[in-house]
Amino acid sequence: MAGKENNFPPLPHFLPLKPCFYQDIPDEIPIEHQVLVKRIYLLWMFYCITLGVNLVACLAWWIAGGSGANFGLAFLWLLLFTPCGYMCWFRPAYKAFRADSSFNFMAFFFICGAQFILAVIQAIGFSGWGVCGWLVAVGFFQVNVGAAVVMLIPALMFTQSAVMMAVVIMRVHRIYRGAGGSFQKAQTEWNSGTWRNPPSREAQFSNFSGNSLPEYPTVPNYPSSGSQWP
Description:
GO biological process, one term: protein transport
Family: Belongs to the SCAMP family.
Number of strands: 0
Strand content: under 5%
Low-confidence stretches: 205-230
Transmembrane segments: 41-63, 69-90, 102-125, 145-169
Largest sheet: none
Number of helices: 8
Shape: globular
Structural class: mainly alpha
Protein name: Secretory carrier-associated membrane protein
Distance between the termini: 62 Å
Order of helices and strands: HHHHHHHH
Helix content: 55-70%
Subcellular location: Membrane
């Protein structure tokens, strides 16, 4: 963004790394959509916390007699899905509402839909997937009750994540369709290349050229009636 320094993720000044994105919801998102975008951001944070809790639960699972491979996979999922979730479905949603971008709306629907399916699978909890879902947590009560109780926590959180993702997708889709969005608009943005860095709504307005109102003469001409005003 021209004239704006990247501010996300917020990193300590002593690190040589710099933030990669500019994010300011009150500044860039239309006021009528700010609450929804903030909730999508909180949903991403909640899912990241869920992955962290799942890592701790997989550690308890391993200590109580489970497989260490699940702990390794849980660590991999935390490292992989934390940045990918932000870049692949939160950022498209952010850019979609910032610039009314049909392509980014479509990207959000497809990727967040895939994330929803993954969250459902994680909530179910198949053995060997590196997640503590319902199946493995309930089944582990016969081995170690304490570890099984800990394993139930990420199962609940994965379930809540899946439900919230479904609600968010439906709400965003309702707004998008209500505004006249379509797959054809997304194709147009793809063909023109504007999907790479769509301008904000303010930039679109400032770049507008032409007369927005019809031209009228400064002084209107009324027919002469030959009478004087009283």
